[in-house]
Specification:
Keywords: Cell shape, Membrane, Transmembrane, Transmembrane helix. With 469 residues, this protein is mainly alpha-helical. It is built from 16 helices and 5 strands. Helix 8 packs antiparallel against helix 14. The protein starts with a helix and ends with a helix.
Amino acid sequence: MATISELRVHRGRRAEGWLLVLSWALAVLARGLVDYHADYLELGALAWYAAGFAVAAAVLHIALRIFAPDSDQVVLPSVLGLIAVALAEIRRLDFAYAARGRDTDFAGTQIGWAILGAVVFIAVLIVIRDHRVLRRFTYTAGVLGIVMYLLPAVPGLGKEINGAKIWIGAFGHSLQPGEFGKILLVVFFAGYLQTNRDALALAGPKVLGMRLPRMRDMGPLAIMFGAALLIMINQKDLGAALLFFGIFIGMVYVATERISWVVIGLVLFVVGAIGAGIVFPHVASRYDAWLHAMDPQVYSSGKSEQLVRGLFGMASGGLFGTGLGNGRPDLVPYAESDFIIPSLGEELGLTGLMAILTLYVILVQRAMRTAIGVRDGFGKLLSAGLGFALTLQVFIVVGGVTRLIPLTGLTTPFLAYGGSSMVANWVVIALILRISDQARRPAQSPETRTDPATAPSRRRPDLEEAAAQ
């Protein structure tokens, strides 16, 4: 007779299968609508696209069942649903640009990046069979993370685009190494905080009712955080700095459960935001566009033109949107990348945007649920940190295009055009699912009782000698 755990896993796998079918149907339907409204519908090409998406989903499903059989069954279909919508909308923008005399193939390129990301996803699951192994490389990950952020500063390698020097040229493409540096620094923070969480939470003087950490405990963490923040500020990538700062504060709070960290973080954030507006002219212009977007002088100067066009696009979409292929998202600059949310808002409406945001909520909720369920502290912090990364990135992007906060230039995970973001976020999902597999594995499994990052050997010579006697 099957156990309760086996029945739960069996039902979960069946549910994942049906969810994958839904994501496949969404991909085919969205692609078909875009081609139909562009008078470019070819059933043969649509059939090849449907078959390719189905094969990719099946391969990912099989790989997940082989290398992480107990992992969460909802995460992968949610990711594929986001990618399905993104590929359709980016293809729709290719048609719109072509009508205006601009020949692009963003959709074809993004399909290639999505496939590469899926391959990297499977490779991470194969190579990292236990997430706790990453704890051995705590400081190595920290150093490599800083190196990733330093690469754009190398003469001849770095490229400045739209006022930010955060890209490097490689193999004929522009790559953003900071996307991968973000993951490495999350690994560093998780390992360091797990080792020093008691000292950070309990030791140190009290000031105004808040317990502050000792410098000897906080020193290495502050150095790594300060170095990464200075690098990002020097590169004028304040969106990534805000994301990184939020992840750091969130992980410290999870590790210490001290509200004082949140208060200190908010104070530092306000001071940093005001200072950035004073020091950097391009940040001041974004503040001006945020506060006075509808001012004729600000709009005519070009500071708020992109933001206002995006707002009018979403307004024209209304509740249910104009329909895929019936809007004018190409009127917004960088509609395929920075402003893909307004593009989708115009053609899918508020209802479609809420469905997309719900998929993000599912991903973040599953990451936090994994953090609660996993049995080791390092896994809790790592899963929570990756969940914070997804949450803050989506909030910063959506908040910027809806004028809730100033624009920062970050990309929307799995939606926006861009290879670095696509591949890096596939790595994030692979790590979350690897931790989820460990969290959902039955407690009696030997692998869950031994932490390979802390236990030097499985053998106990003293017990073997006593047994022999």
